[in-house]
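Bumping with the actual sequence this time:
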Amino acid sequence: MLRLVAGNWKMNGSLAANRALLDQLVVVPGVEMAVCVPYPYLAQLQDRPSGLQLGAQDVSEHGAGAYTGEVSAAMLGEFGCRYVIVGHSERRALFGEADLVVGRKARAAQAAGMVPIVCVGETLDERDGGQVMAVIGRQLAAVLDVVGVEAMAALVLAYEPVWAIGTGRSATAGQVAEVHGGIRAWLRAQGVDARRVRILYGGSVKPDNAAAIFAVADVDGGLIGGASLVAEDFMAICRAAADAV
């Protein structure tokens, strides 16, 4: 399966800046490329390079109704979204998003024909306390309980060590290999066809460390934050993913 490199613009962008960025992006053969953008820019992204997948950064667990400020999966589908990020560490930490809610959002996305990118990962205190796989297992179990074994194999996972997001720090190749391997083993133990699940790494991936990260076993791509806002950097990361063996 192709590696997936998905850019998470977070709460950044403007109509002019987005246009300038898109004009510099070219789809790299041998890798699937996506950009997950703020809701207001989904319409603008209808005009994007051919082959560049579109994604959103969140979705409501609800299908419709009196949920002011929420955006449903069906609405995202009307803009042609293929992917939607759920459970990003910033949603969990800043907005109190619980594990079970993440599972419900993943289910809503899949029901509308989209692929959720489910984010999991530990804080520095949890890592120092030897709780990495206990934390990630809890986060994954909440999703599995909601979507079921078969649907679990059809989503994308993103391991994002919370201590490496927006800090300029990145996990070592050994740390990434250990956790990605642990996630794959956890999935197999639950009866999930783990070979079908793409596991992305999402912690300060940059052009100068992308090749090393993508060379790690069980890394199937990246969820890219700040570097996805710089066309040259994002392209370099995508090329590194395409070249990885």
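The tokens above came from a reply further down the thread. The longest helix spans residues 173-189.
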